[in-house]
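Moderator note: this is an archived Q&A kept for reference. The question asked for a predicted structure of one protein chain; the sequence and the answer are reproduced below.
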Amino acid sequence: MQDSKALASIPLTPANTAPPAPQFPWPKPFTSAMFLSFDVDAESAWTAKDAAHAERLVTMSYGGYEARVGTPKLLELLDQLDLKATFFITGWAVDAHPAMAESILKAGHEIGHHGYHHLLVDPGDPVDEEVDRGLEALKRHLGVVPKGYRAPVGEFTEALRVALVRKGIVYTSSFRDDVRPYRHRLKDGRPGTIELPVTSSYDDWMHGLSNRFSPRSIFPKEHVLSMWKDDLDETRDWGAMVTTVLHPQVSGRPMRLRLLREFLIYAKSCSDLWITTGEAIAANYQNHEAGGSAAAAE
């Protein structure tokens, strides 16, 4: 049981004090949206858990699959389907695999920030070095100043929210508390980044790969495809947005690529669905916010 003093320290306020997401319209003729995004961790997904994994060569090979096979196959699929996506890349992956990162940019996709070493941030942890090293790697190799940021391992602290605003990040995509974009409110009341909330069921790591030796079996294509279609169809009925969190070391493998191909073909058949990048969705939000249309509920 937790210590009573620790429990007493929990604030009696919501962790996220931002107002509910405004009902800003999507660009015509669309009435719903999909933020198509990938997290490119490469080997940093594994060294973030334990730096000693760098000497465990088979463990590292799981992440190495991204540059060798997974990312090229995903880029090929997106080109075949004429889709553009956002790729959140760790700075370590850019430094270790510059040709892979360059191929994503050359294919016309958005590049987002995903930390440097893919480290999970805890309260009290310093954040500037990890953010700055990621920014520097993207600028040095790709000439990119990213607009978007996704937190490694999907975790945030107030210090990180503040730092990202200070460093000019326009939007983040990590929280799981809405189905439409909204603007963060910092603890001191200042406006934060635009949040493009993640849809947990579209995280392929949950259904395809979690650990080298996992007690969970890999879900078959039929189960995941059924779940993804149902989630998408209901979200479309709501006029809302789904956000994918796909990994080349998961969805770039043969069975998973076939699943993703079938799902994206289905999504493209939905004429009401805007499939696009985080940058485009954030820009749509900014345009309506600046114009004052459909103001957020307070």
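Archived answer notes: The chain has a mean pLDDT of 93.
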